[in-house]
Amino acid sequence: MSNTNQSAGHRAETTTSERIGMIWAEAADGIIGAGGTMPWSLPEDLAHFKRTTIGHPVIMGRKTWESFPEKFRPLPGRTNIVITRDASLHGALRAAGAVPVGSTDQALKAARAAEGAEEIWVIGGGEIYAALADGAHLAIKTVINASPKGDTKAPALDSAWTKLLSDPDSGWLTAANGTEYRVEAWERKS
Ligand SMILES: NC(=O)c1ccc[n+]([C@@H]2O[C@H](COP(=O)([O-])OP(=O)(O)OC[C@H]3O[C@@H](n4cnc5c(N)ncnc54)[C@H](OP(=O)(O)O)[C@@H]3O)[C@@H](O)[C@H]2O)c1
């Protein structure tokens, strides 16, 4: 059985068993990045990110790949699919353990061929969330109670999206370093 929506550019034909999720952490005003990195330190969120995505392919933009320290990439236990328009980068990306692709459609194709493809995780950054949001079913966002300056924003979740849960229901969790945050799960209904 399949589900096709021609109006969404990247909503290629998907099987009903496939789930495409987006995962990010955002501060006030939807800020997710500043100067090529994340403008906060929240180890608890990195652990949550790993627990959520481990065993499944992850799709990211070239700038997000470059935002990871070399010793932490590729993200272990996941096929790391990196999107770039610059074909001259493909050899180095491949040598570094990534699966380089030239478009979002190629990224989805590579993800569907990877281990753990019943769940595909879009892990950023801003350009890639924006390009793939229409085809995603799930969004897991960590909301951080801080207002850093930044240059990259999370995708806006429009009225097609419904909040499934928030942890905690109200208020905040407090990280070991004092940062307040909560984790929300959203589902796209249409
Ligand atoms: N808070 C979070 O959860 C989170 C998560 C991820 C990233 N981030 C942050 O987000 C920032 C990076 O995000 P970003 O929006 O600047 O960059 P990005 O989305 O990571 O990567 C952008 C790059 O992806 C490639 N690309 C984008 N669309 C493409 C398309 N349709 N076809 C082919 N290639 C395409 C291009 O690479 P080429 O230029 O090589 O062609 C483009 O420069 C960093 O600050 C990072 O720390 C935050």
From TrEMBL:
It holds the Pfam family DHFR_1. Its EC number is 1.5.1.3. The keyword Cytoplasm does not apply. It comes from the Bacteria. InterPro entries: DHFR, DHFR-like_dom_sf, DHFR_dom. One of its GO terms (molecular function) is dihydrofolate reductase activity. Coiled coil: none annotated. Pathway: Cofactor biosynthesis; tetrahydrofolate biosynthesis; 5,6,7,8-tetrahydrofolate from 7,8-dihydrofolate: step 1/1. Residues 19-188 form the DHFR domain. Keywords: NADP, One-carbon metabolism, Oxidoreductase. It catalyses: (6S)-5,6,7,8-tetrahydrofolate + NADP(+) = 7,8-dihydrofolate + NADPH + H(+). The keyword Cell cycle does not apply. Key enzyme in folate metabolism. Catalyzes an essential reaction for de novo glycine and purine synthesis, and for DNA precursor synthesis. Belongs to the dihydrofolate reductase family. This is Dihydrofolate reductase.
